[in-house]
Amino acid sequence: QVQLVESGGGLVQAGGSLRLSCAASGLTFSTYRMGWFRQAPGKEREFVATISWSGGSPTYADSVKGRFTISRDNAKNTVYLQMNSLKPEDTAIYLCACRKLSGSWDYWGQGTQVTVSS
User: Fold this and answer.
1) Element (H, E) at 113
2) Positive/negative CA dihedral, 71, 92, 84, 19
3) Tens digits of per-residue pLDDT, 42-88?
4) What are phi and psi of 81, to 5 degrees?
5) Residue 103 has what pLDDT?
């Protein structure tokens, strides 16, 4: 079955950096668009970034533009989220997801916790 497993979260001071990874299995990874989302306590899940199957057309939420970079390695079935200049408001559970077509996301990971201290 399809599995998405996130890793790389942790506790970091404001201004620091983290690199999240999402390893996919059970699917033809190179045919899926990948995305990162986050959910803070008491808040709705929100979009962070997405990247096409080929690695092109990265798109970001305004709140992370210029600080976060999404990338993928289709040979490793992995998508990454490089997060720089982290802020306390970036604290959330970060989840990856994938989809083939436009519309709803097909599969989700369990998430990895990112905590940014001030």
Assistant:
1) strand 112-117
2) negative
3) 999 999 999 999 988 899 999 999 999 999 999 999 999 999 999 99
4) -135, 105
5) 80
| Beta-carbon count within 10 A of 116 CB | 20
DSSP 104: S
Per-residue confidence band for 114, with pLDDT thresholds at 50, 70 and 90: very high
Q: Which amino acid is at 14?
A: A
Average model confidence (pLDDT) for the chain? 96
For every residue of 8-76, which 3-state class applies, written as one string? CCEEEECCCCEEEEEEEECCCHHHCEEEEEEECCCCCCEEEEEECCCCCCCEECCCCCCCEEEEEECCC
Beta bridge partners of 46: 38
Q: Which amino acid is at 50?
A: T
Give SS3 for 103: coil
What is the identity of the amino acid at 80?
Y
Reported residue count of the chain is 118
Let me know: does 109 contact 94? Beta carbons within 8 Å: no
Do residues 107 and 98 touch, judged by C-beta distance below 8 A?
yes
